[in-house]
Amino acid sequence: QVHLVESGGGLVQPGGSLRLSCTTSRNIFSIEVMGWYRQAPGKQRELVADIFRAGNINYGEPVKGRFTISRDNAKNTVYLQMNSLKPEDTAVYYCQEDGSWGQGTQVTVSS
Fold first, then answer.
1. How far is CA 63 from CA 2, 24, 30, in A?
2. CA distances, 99 to each of 36, 38, 41, 86 (Å)
3. DSSP symbols for 15-63
4. Strand 46-52 relative to strand 91-97: parallel, antiparallel, unpaired?
5. Is 84 helix (H, G, I), strand (E, B) or coil?
6. End-to-end CA distance of the chain
7. Distance (Å, whole) CA 76 – CA 28
8. How wide is the angle at C-alpha 72 spanned by C-alphas 71 and 74, nearest 5°?
9. pLDDT tens digits, the chain, 111 residues: what are they?
10. Do 50 and 33 contact (CB within 8 A), yes or no?
11. What is the pLDDT of residue 99?
């Protein structure tokens, strides 16, 4: 059974930064795709960013140019660096790995 541990959420002011981490219990080299989705109240879950085993990366349109996804293979961990945060980035952020989901971490952007 896959176990995903997420961390790094919290409260930040507009324009600030946060880094999310997601560590998997699996060997990251066996994972086809790993990434982050988010869900704001009353909205559908949407892709934030994902990274494939081959190295290609996708970003959701709202975060392009502000967020960066990266991977540390030695730590079986994927990171999401979030810069220039906006109130509309407020959501629960979920780590996803080949169809398995983490519990989510709350990100709140507010002054």
1. 27, 24, 27
2. 12, 15, 22, 28
3. T--EEEEEEESS-GGG-SEEEEEEE-TTS--EEEEEEETTS-EEE-GGG
4. unpaired
5. coil
6. 40
7. 5
8. 145
9. 778 999 999 999 999 999 999 999 988 888 899 999 999 999 999 999 999 999 999 999 999 999 999 999 999 999 999 999 999 999 999 999 988 999 999 999 999
10. yes
11. 86
Tokens linked to 14: 């507009």
Confidence at residue 29, expressed as pLDDT on a 0 to 100 scale: 87
Task: Supply 34's token pair.
Answer: 């790993």
What burial letters (b/e) apply to 28-67, b meaning 16+ CB within 10 Å? beebeebbbbbeeeeeeeebbbbbeeeeeeebbeebeeeb
Give the amino acid at 84.
S
Whose tokens are 């906006």? That residue is: 86
Q: If DSSP codes are grouped into helix, strand and coil, which group holds residue 3? A: coil
Beta bridge partners of 57: 51
